[in-house]
Design a protein that fits this description.
Layout (H helix, E strand, L loop, with lengths): L4 E3 L5 E3 L1 E5 L4 H12 L5 E4 L4 H8 L11 E4 L2 E4 L3 H11 L6 E4 L4 E6 L2 E10 L2 E8 L9 H15 L3 E4 L2 H8 L2 H4 L4
Parallel strand pairs: 3-4, 10-11
Antiparallel strand pairs: 1-2, 3-5, 5-6, 7-8, 8-9, 9-10
Length: 186
Amino acid sequence: MHNEQLVTSAGRNIPEIKLYGAGHCHKTDYYKSVLEEAGASYNFLDVVKNESHAKELRNLYENRKLNFPTITIGDKKLRNPPKEVLFKWMHKKIPSMLTLKHNKGEKKYTLDIDGEEAKVEYVLQEGKMFLTHSEVPYALRGKGIGKELVLKTFEKLTEEGYQAVAVCSYVKAIKNRDRHWKGIIG
């Protein structure tokens, strides 16, 4: 597949994950199991059995060697990464994989991205949840995390049975761009 982005049914852009390796390689098998454990959709490209896959991998490196296993997530290339590094980049490149947490005590929904917190804060009044503020750490802006945060918040709060009103201008903008949520979130 030549697309760098896959689009899910929810309209969220997801970079393609490719695993370049060999069927007989124990490290390749390890990365297959890590990606499957994470629930990640990926393409396995056997560089020993398929010359076009081998050529594609060689073109990723200046030395033109078959450096495998190599994992690409969109435009990010990782050569034999530790599991933690792989997950870090998956979370940065694919925010939809992040788990949203509801901190009722602090009245906020959060995404933890490698120790940084993206959040939507709210106030409960008259049986409704007013979404008053959203924030993504500066270093993580421009990567689609804010949109994912708001969409996940909408999903979670409706699952939990809340009625919500968008007060924050960014939350309003995300709601107004989505026909589904426009009819649910006030």
